[in-house]
Amino acid sequence: MGGRLAAPATVGTALVLGLAAAAPWLTFVFTIALAKGLAVLGILLLLRAGQVSFGHALYLAVGAYTVAFARPLAGDVLVLLPLATAVATLVGVVVGLFVARYRDIFFGMLNLAFSMVVYSLLEKLYAVTRGTDGIRVDRPTIAGVALERVPYEWTMLGLMLALAIGLGFVARLFLASPLGQALPAIKARETRLEFAGISARRVLLVAYVASAALAGLGGGVIALTTLHVTPLIAYWTHSGELVFIAILGGGGAVLGPFLGAVAFELVRVYAAAAFPDAWQMILGAVLLGIILFASRGLWGLYEGLMARLGRRA
Amino acid sequence: MTLLLLLAVLDGLAHAALVFMVAVGLTLVFGVLRVLNVAHGSFFAIGAYVAATLGTAAAATAAAPLFALPALLVAAMLVGGLLGPVVERLLLSRIYVKDHVLQLLVTFALFMILEDVQKLIWGVQPIFQDAAVKALGPVEVGDIVYTRYQLFLLPAVAAATLLCLMWFLRRTLTGRVIVAVTHDREAATAMGIDAARVYLLTFSFGTMLAALGGALAAPTTSLVPGIGVNMIVLSFAVVATAGLGQIEGAALTALLIGLGRSIAVYFAPEFEVVIPYLIMVAVLLVRPHGLFGSPELRRV
Fold this sequence. Notes:
Oligomer: heterodimer
Helix content of chain B: over 70%
Structural class of chain A: mainly alpha
Number of strands of chain B: 2
CATH class of chain B: Mainly Alpha
Largest sheet of chain A: 2 strands, antiparallel
Strand content of chain B: under 5%
Largest interface: A-B, 40 and 40 residues
Shape of chain B: globular
Number of helices of chain B: 12
Mean pLDDT of chain B: 86
Number of helices of chain A: 14
Strand order of the largest sheet of chain B: 1-2
Low-confidence stretches of chain A: none
Strand content of chain A: under 5%
Largest sheet of chain B: 2 strands, antiparallel
Order of helices and strands of chain B: HHHHHEEHHHHHHH
Radius of gyration of chain B: 19 Å
Mean pLDDT of chain A: 86
CATH topology of chain B: ABC transporter involved in vitamin B12 uptake, BtuC
Number of strands of chain A: 2
Number of domains of chain B: 1
Number of domains of chain A: 1
Low-confidence stretches of chain B: 296-300
Helix content of chain A: over 70%
Radius of gyration of chain A: 19 Å
């Protein structure tokens, strides 16, 4: 990861591995956090275009349920994850063709509506999805090797770190490409983009499908880590969490989502246990605080700190 | 079959009346403030909870059946009169100049907060208070025994709300001032209209409509966490299908979606939740601005 992101990415990876080695239960938390970070990276692409989706848990669910349904047929992580990504991409294309016509409120709420529909279908179609009981996923092999629980969780964390860094790099290339540069133009002045001969709808569709694929992959990793999939993964609170993490991490750089996701999951482990009924309230209050007072998120705070240190040196 | 269909139509009418109450508030607030208030669903839920609490308190008094119905209205006025101005002044008034995305996120954050406030105050156990339904008693429609509350009161309140709103916006001075601000805030301000006051008034009134919808729904259902989110997506479906800012359109669409949904409840229960969105998607595919909406036309 070139330039100014290499150092924080290396430090972050070392921190995650070090902390997980010191407290083994954190391997699980970090894997989930980074998987959500992938989905948030997708949200970030849409935020660049000034659009916010309140329904991206839909793609987490598509990825997770793809893994759950395919597990009896395919036994390897390296088959299941690409499959989850592919199915999420496909759903992303179909839904994206519809929602890419809309902006702002319609874009956000239509995504919410689609995710609510999928949530209720997952819950109601008991014969297919086993309803709220969910589906258990047997621990699969990784590249043909069957692993015990502890080495399996470590391998998943390693795989997830590699995915986070690799896809973060790809996302950075994408945002720097002409197509990626067209995204902020949708936010700034869409008509001018069209005058330049670029279809805003197509640009947004590409970003949307990419975000769906990222969330699908993240959902697949979550299913392969928790080894149990329930409809709750498609519920609006999860979509809200993704948007929350995106704002918390800040939209300035591709590391923001992962920074935000890890900070979020760590706080949640303690806060959700201490205040189960006030958890959403805390999230909402922090979200308000960031929007009103620190609009560039955690990454913005980090950059501000670096800039100040640089000036002093 | 015909019996089921009749039952579905009756349920659909009652349900449509409730959805309309919430949707019309949402569309009115959007028309004036240009903010889609996601927390509108929370106002619905809070209205329902306050009504249930008041209803239980009223049931303990000597003249219980008399108070059951007024308690619903009092609940709505309380929520609209207290919560509405506080939210508009403290929160929304800070974000009118911000991006649409940020406005949406702020109301979404408020929604998250209010969801847990409900859990903290009223708990997560289902709450049931049907004194208002019992006060009016049952009625026979053909072979079906139905409640007077759902058959007469709900549609009557919804129809009265629609007519009063139409009259208010077209014939009264305050109503015309609201319409003027909707059209062009700057021009209206230049003519001496206090736009900030209009915003406050409209938002509080919209909040009261959502709370009244909730209060009216309370006696017909068990109150559990999550009714707010279901109602906000459903009423958004209604508002989007009708066209944002369309009041009469919202009434027609609420009827369409309410009936479609209750027919699904009786004939294909798995797809009950899907029907409203199928209708919405179908309409938006053909008319991207909704059935009655158009980007340039007047919105209130």
